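For concreteness, we quote verbatim a single protein encoded this way:
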Amino acid sequence: CLWLDGDDRLEGGENLRRLVREAPRASNGQAWAYLAEYEYDQDLVGRATVTQWRERLVAPAAGFEWRGPVHEGLLGKAGTNVTHILTEAFRVVHQRRKLGKGGESGRNLRILRAWFRAHGDADTRLMHYFGAELLLNKFLGEARYWLRRHAQQSSWSDERALSMLQLARVELALEDYEEASRWALMATATKTWPEPWWLLGQAYIGLSEQGIDREYNLRRGLNALERGFMMDGDPKARTLLMADPQARYEAHEWFAPTLAKAGRLDDAIKSAELGLVGKPESKTLQQNLADWRKV
């Protein structure tokens, strides 16, 4: 059984037959599910902004069911022991933006509000998605409430860390860098991903720019950003859930000028060049790079 939506594009479909032949051996004859990369959203120029890994190719079909009112998952039924197999042999790209398909504004939020009215907080996992949809629709107070509850209650470390990262980003946007650093630090203790370290570095640098322990926080910020880049690219340091491929380039917008302030001009130039690979429109990186090359 292959799962595709009507506005999805399949890449690598020529490999599906081979994967199906190989699956029984990889799963010892049990039910199996291939997890493939899903490019869920893109920015206005077509760069991926949300990627995740989802169950796409499964068997036997009778052993699986859809779960969740939104962001549904094709998961094994109760009693079905599923072997999950990660593959890069195919991937799926969501093309709603490219195809110009409009979708009902606030649809997911409407569905989730109705679900929580009917069921209360019976499903901890949905708290994260409810908080994320509230945030998307600018209900900031409610979003923080549900993301905090999810971060406190979820038993799945990946989703728990995602809620912490969402909360850190909210506080960064509000320039409450102390609170942002608290959530980012909790995320670093939850998962060994680069993103928590990048956000922690940004929070410390923000504190420095506010005049709070200026030199100390600048050093802490530089160290945290550097740790994030050391982890970046390690397959063990990635989530199968929602990730933003642009995050590393945004981190360079903080990393490059901080390196320059620390007197590491050659490293600052390299960081700016790497940042411009993913964010060529960044005026800050463009101007900094031009200035530093004159030195």
About this structure: The chain has a mean pLDDT of 94. The chain is about 55% helix and 15% strand. Strands lie at 8-11, 31-42, 48-59, 64-67, 73-76, 82-94.
